[in-house]
Amino acid sequence: MGKQARKIVGVDVKKLINDLNKAYCDEWLAFYSYRFMGQVVSGAGYEDMAEFLNKTADIELEHSRELADRIVELGGTPVAQFGMIEKNANVAYPVPPDKTDDYNAIVSTVLAAEAAAIDVYQAIANETFGKDHVTHNVVMHILSEEIQHEEMFENLGLVKQEVEPVKKEAVTARY
Ligand SMILES: [Fe+2]
Ligand SMILES: [Fe+2]
Fold first, then answer.
1. Among the CATH numbers 1.20.1260.10, 1.10.287.110, 3.40.50.2300, 1.10.8.60, which is that of 11-172?
2. Which of 21, 74, 76, 104 is spaced 20 to 30 Å from 153 by Cα?
3. Is 17 helix (H, G, I), strand (E, B) or coil?
4. The pTM is what?
5. What is the pLDDT of residues 36-91, one digit of tens each?
6. Ligand number with the minimum distance to the CA of 63
7. Domain extent listing, the chain
8. Ligand nearest to the Cα of 153, by number
Protein backbone atom coordinates (compact mmCIF):
# COMPACT_ATOMS: atom_id res chain seq x y z
CA MET A 1 0.00 0.00 0.00
CA GLY A 2 1.25 3.47 -0.86
CA LYS A 3 2.15 6.13 1.66
CA GLN A 4 -0.94 8.26 1.20
CA ALA A 5 -3.22 5.23 1.22
CA ARG A 6 -1.70 4.10 4.51
CA LYS A 7 -2.01 7.59 5.98
CA ILE A 8 -5.75 7.81 5.34
CA VAL A 9 -6.48 4.54 7.16
CA GLY A 10 -7.65 5.84 10.51
CA VAL A 11 -7.26 2.58 12.41
CA ASP A 12 -4.38 0.52 13.82
CA VAL A 13 -3.32 -1.19 10.58
CA LYS A 14 -1.54 -4.06 12.34
CA LYS A 15 -4.62 -4.92 14.36
CA LEU A 16 -6.82 -4.59 11.29
CA ILE A 17 -4.59 -6.95 9.27
CA ASN A 18 -4.77 -9.40 12.17
CA ASP A 19 -8.58 -9.18 12.33
CA LEU A 20 -8.88 -9.63 8.56
CA ASN A 21 -6.51 -12.59 8.70
CA LYS A 22 -8.63 -14.28 11.36
CA ALA A 23 -11.72 -13.77 9.21
CA TYR A 24 -9.74 -15.12 6.23
CA CYS A 25 -9.17 -18.33 8.22
CA ASP A 26 -12.87 -18.53 9.13
CA GLU A 27 -13.71 -18.37 5.42
CA TRP A 28 -11.41 -21.30 4.58
CA LEU A 29 -12.96 -23.38 7.35
CA ALA A 30 -16.48 -22.58 6.15
CA PHE A 31 -15.47 -23.26 2.54
CA TYR A 32 -14.00 -26.65 3.39
CA SER A 33 -16.90 -27.70 5.61
CA TYR A 34 -19.59 -26.67 3.11
CA ARG A 35 -17.72 -28.19 0.17
CA PHE A 36 -17.24 -31.43 2.10
CA MET A 37 -20.93 -31.58 3.04
CA GLY A 38 -21.85 -30.77 -0.58
CA GLN A 39 -19.80 -33.72 -1.74
CA VAL A 40 -21.06 -36.34 0.69
CA VAL A 41 -24.69 -35.31 1.28
CA SER A 42 -27.14 -38.15 0.64
CA GLY A 43 -30.82 -38.92 1.06
CA ALA A 44 -33.95 -37.68 -0.69
CA GLY A 45 -33.33 -34.33 -2.36
CA TYR A 46 -29.56 -34.61 -1.98
CA GLU A 47 -28.94 -32.97 -5.37
CA ASP A 48 -30.60 -29.72 -4.32
CA MET A 49 -28.85 -29.71 -0.96
CA ALA A 50 -25.50 -30.45 -2.65
CA GLU A 51 -26.00 -27.58 -5.08
CA PHE A 52 -26.96 -25.26 -2.25
CA LEU A 53 -23.92 -26.18 -0.17
CA ASN A 54 -21.49 -26.05 -3.09
CA LYS A 55 -22.72 -22.66 -4.27
CA THR A 56 -22.35 -21.27 -0.76
CA ALA A 57 -18.89 -22.84 -0.47
CA ASP A 58 -17.86 -21.02 -3.67
CA ILE A 59 -18.94 -17.72 -2.15
CA GLU A 60 -16.96 -18.38 1.04
CA LEU A 61 -13.89 -19.05 -1.10
CA GLU A 62 -14.53 -15.77 -2.90
CA HIS A 63 -14.68 -14.05 0.51
CA SER A 64 -11.26 -15.48 1.39
CA ARG A 65 -9.91 -14.00 -1.85
CA GLU A 66 -11.49 -10.60 -1.19
CA LEU A 67 -10.00 -10.56 2.31
CA ALA A 68 -6.58 -11.68 1.01
CA ASP A 69 -6.61 -8.85 -1.53
CA ARG A 70 -7.30 -6.28 1.18
CA ILE A 71 -4.72 -7.81 3.57
CA VAL A 72 -2.08 -7.50 0.84
CA GLU A 73 -3.15 -3.93 0.04
CA LEU A 74 -2.72 -3.04 3.70
CA GLY A 75 0.82 -4.40 3.60
CA GLY A 76 0.10 -7.73 5.32
CA THR A 77 0.28 -11.36 4.27
CA PRO A 78 -2.57 -13.85 4.45
CA VAL A 79 -1.89 -16.94 6.59
CA ALA A 80 0.51 -19.12 4.59
CA GLN A 81 0.52 -22.38 6.56
CA PHE A 82 -2.57 -24.51 6.16
CA GLY A 83 -2.07 -25.87 9.66
CA MET A 84 -2.42 -22.35 11.01
CA ILE A 85 -5.84 -21.82 9.47
CA GLU A 86 -7.77 -23.55 12.24
CA LYS A 87 -5.51 -22.20 14.99
CA ASN A 88 -5.80 -18.61 13.83
CA ALA A 89 -9.54 -18.61 13.08
CA ASN A 90 -12.07 -16.75 15.22
CA VAL A 91 -14.28 -19.78 15.28
CA ALA A 92 -13.73 -23.51 15.34
CA TYR A 93 -14.16 -25.67 12.25
CA PRO A 94 -17.88 -26.16 11.56
CA VAL A 95 -17.71 -29.93 12.00
CA PRO A 96 -19.96 -31.71 9.45
CA PRO A 97 -22.43 -34.15 11.01
CA ASP A 98 -21.63 -37.87 10.77
CA LYS A 99 -24.98 -38.65 9.15
CA THR A 100 -24.84 -37.43 5.56
CA ASP A 101 -28.64 -37.50 5.17
CA ASP A 102 -29.39 -35.49 8.32
CA TYR A 103 -30.46 -32.20 6.74
CA ASN A 104 -31.41 -30.69 10.06
CA ALA A 105 -27.86 -31.25 11.37
CA ILE A 106 -26.28 -30.03 8.11
CA VAL A 107 -28.33 -26.84 8.10
CA SER A 108 -27.65 -26.30 11.83
CA THR A 109 -23.91 -26.54 11.11
CA VAL A 110 -24.22 -23.93 8.37
CA LEU A 111 -26.42 -21.63 10.45
CA ALA A 112 -24.01 -21.71 13.42
CA ALA A 113 -21.09 -20.82 11.11
CA GLU A 114 -23.05 -18.04 9.42
CA ALA A 115 -24.15 -16.56 12.74
CA ALA A 116 -20.52 -16.49 13.87
CA ALA A 117 -19.44 -14.88 10.58
CA ILE A 118 -22.11 -12.20 10.94
CA ASP A 119 -20.75 -11.35 14.41
CA VAL A 120 -17.17 -11.19 13.11
CA TYR A 121 -17.98 -8.90 10.15
CA GLN A 122 -20.27 -6.73 12.21
CA ALA A 123 -17.34 -6.12 14.59
CA ILE A 124 -14.89 -5.28 11.77
CA ALA A 125 -17.52 -3.07 10.11
CA ASN A 126 -17.89 -1.13 13.38
CA GLU A 127 -14.12 -0.92 13.79
CA THR A 128 -13.57 0.54 10.31
CA PHE A 129 -16.70 2.69 9.99
CA GLY A 130 -15.75 6.24 9.02
CA LYS A 131 -12.04 5.37 9.37
CA ASP A 132 -11.11 2.99 6.59
CA HIS A 133 -13.71 3.23 3.84
CA VAL A 134 -12.07 0.66 1.58
CA THR A 135 -11.93 -2.11 4.19
CA HIS A 136 -15.38 -1.08 5.38
CA ASN A 137 -16.79 -1.59 1.88
CA VAL A 138 -15.16 -5.00 1.52
CA VAL A 139 -16.49 -6.09 4.90
CA MET A 140 -19.99 -4.71 4.28
CA HIS A 141 -20.15 -6.61 1.00
CA ILE A 142 -19.15 -9.85 2.74
CA LEU A 143 -21.48 -9.18 5.69
CA SER A 144 -24.44 -8.73 3.34
CA GLU A 145 -23.69 -12.10 1.72
CA GLU A 146 -23.39 -13.85 5.10
CA ILE A 147 -26.78 -12.39 6.01
CA GLN A 148 -28.17 -13.80 2.74
CA HIS A 149 -26.68 -17.21 3.52
CA GLU A 150 -28.28 -17.28 6.95
CA GLU A 151 -31.61 -16.33 5.45
CA MET A 152 -31.39 -18.87 2.60
CA PHE A 153 -30.63 -21.74 4.95
CA GLU A 154 -33.16 -20.57 7.54
CA ASN A 155 -35.82 -20.39 4.84
CA LEU A 156 -35.40 -24.08 4.10
CA GLY A 157 -37.48 -24.42 7.26
CA LEU A 158 -35.54 -27.49 8.37
CA VAL A 159 -34.23 -26.18 11.68
CA LYS A 160 -36.76 -25.31 14.34
CA GLN A 161 -34.47 -24.94 17.34
CA GLU A 162 -32.33 -21.87 18.16
CA VAL A 163 -28.85 -22.15 16.67
CA GLU A 164 -25.98 -20.54 18.58
CA PRO A 165 -23.03 -19.06 16.67
CA VAL A 166 -20.20 -21.60 16.50
CA LYS A 167 -17.57 -20.81 19.16
CA LYS A 168 -14.06 -22.08 19.58
CA GLU A 169 -14.54 -23.53 23.09
CA ALA A 170 -17.87 -25.11 22.18
CA VAL A 171 -16.42 -27.01 19.28
CA THR A 172 -13.20 -28.19 20.91
CA ALA A 173 -15.40 -30.31 23.12
CA ARG A 174 -16.74 -32.15 20.07
CA TYR A 175 -13.35 -33.59 19.06
FE1 LIG B 1 -17.99 -15.89 4.06
FE1 LIG C 1 -21.54 -17.46 4.46
1. 1.20.1260.10
2. 21
3. helix
4. 0.91
5. 999 999 998 899 999 999 999 999 999 999 999 999 999 999 999 999 999 999 99
6. 1
7. 11-172
8. 2
